[in-house]
Amino acid sequence: MRKILLIILFTTAIFAKLNVAVTYNYLGEVTKAIGGDLVDVTVLSSPKLDPHFITPKPSLIAKLRRADLLIINGGQLEIGWLPPLLKRANSSKINTGGIGFLDVSGAVELIDKPKSVSRAYGDIHPDGNPHFGLDINNIIPIAKLISMKLSQLDPKNSSTYNNNYNSFSSKMETLANSLKEKYKSCQGKKVIQYHELFNYALRAYGVESLATIEPLPGISPSSKHTIKVINLIRENGIKTILQDVYHEKKTAKFIADKTGAKVNIVPHDVGAISEANSLEDFYKIVAKRICQ
Ligand SMILES: [Zn+2]
Asked: How far is the CA of 31 from the centre of ligand 1 (A)?
């Protein structure tokens, strides 16, 4: 009996997977690509919802307590929902600064940084724009950081993580180059977007966002600001409004009706729309809907 128990314990130790909790779906997809069968990934939010305001459900606390590693987007994207959950989970391992905590914003350079700390710049992007996951070029350094962290936590499998990273990064680099080539005529295009969600992707394709439907990040549209946007669209001959899946859509429709511009629904995360269920399809559809 004791022998059997020892064998079970030994086998469990050998084949135990790393439990990885991630805040958003795209981070889950990268972690699965790098970790393969060696990781169990739990995504804490739904890609259909506003990433700034996920409901901090109690069930998420149990998921955090089970985690060996917590991977977050950072750049204050989770500031409105994750801190109280982390506090309640009370796991020193995955708390900020713990061995099992990884903030991937360290892998990229944030854009749209406010010139001074002021509410005049809106409430929800105080450190700059946290939506860097929308640019395919950023996913490679993020994957590198994840592969390094998995190797640190599970050094005996580091060559697997490294090999998986190498094949992931070359696949993404090929896709990034082909999308850049496919949509090069998109350069110089001007668009309107609801929230500053797509700035990193717009930069990748040389597209300029002239205004947002919300007057400031996190502030609901006003009629005065909507009229300003309508005039801007008319003056600049803008033909495309980029709308995400989770904000109200009636303001974009109103503006489109007044100006003849077209509303394109663009996913902000893997799984936000049914056509974007893998990282590859996500980046393809983001580029297509920005450029067409
Ligand atoms: Zn935002």
From this structure: 23
Q: Model confidence over 29-68: pLDDT tens digits?
A: 999 999 999 999 999 999 999 999 999 899 999 999 999 9
Give 195's DSSP letter.
Answer: S
The Cα 122–Cα 220 span in angstroms is 11
142 CA distance to ligand 1 centroid (A)? 19
* Domain boundary residue, one of 121, 147, 177: 177
CA 193 – ligand 1 centroid, Å:
12
Q: Are residues 107 and 161 in the same domain?
A: yes
User: Do 55 and 188 fall within a single domain?
Assistant: no
* Range of the structural domain that residue 75 is part of: 2-177
Q: Which of 81, 56, 49, 54 is nearest to 246 (CA)?
A: 49
Q: What is the pLDDT of residue 61?
A: 97
For the chain, percent of residues with pLDDT exceeding 90: 87
Quick check: 207 and 186 in contact, CB under 8 A?
Answer: yes
Q: Cα of 130 to ligand 1 centre, how many Å?
A: 6
